[in-house]
Amino acid sequence: MKANVNKDTCIGCGLCESICPAVFSMTGAVAEVIATPVPSPNELACQEAVESCPVAAITISE
Questions:
Q1: Which residue among 19, 30, 31, 61 is least packed, with the fewest CB closer than 10 Å?
Q2: pLDDT bracket for residue 4 (50, 70, 90)
Q3: Is residue 57 very low, low, confident or very high in pLDDT (cuts 50, 70, 90)?
Q4: What is the largest CA-CA distance in the chain?
C-alpha cells in the first residue's frame, strides 16, 4: 500500500505523525510520507491516520 498527502489540503495538524510516525513526518507546515510503500506492520496505523485526518488530505492506494 502507498500513502499520499495532498499538500494543498493538509493543515499541518500533525495528527497523522502522532498516529503513525513510521509513515508520516511533519516537514514545515505540512505532513510528508516518509515510507513508500507502507511497511506491513504499519498498515493499520496508516489506515487510522487516513480516517483521522480532519481535512481528508491523506489517501491510500494499493
A1: 61
A2: very high
A3: very high
A4: 28
Q: Is the pTM of this model over 0.70?
A: yes
Query: pLDDT digits over 32-56, tens only?
Result: 999 999 999 999 999 999 999 999 9
| 11 closest CA partner among 33, 24, 36, 28 | 28
23 touches 3 (CB < 8 A): yes
The residue with cell 495532498 is 6
Domains of the chain (ranges, CATH numbers): 2-61 (3.30.70.20)
Locate 46 and state its grid cell: 496508516
CB atoms within 10 A of CB 30: 15
Q: Which helix (H) or strand (E) holds 55?
A: none
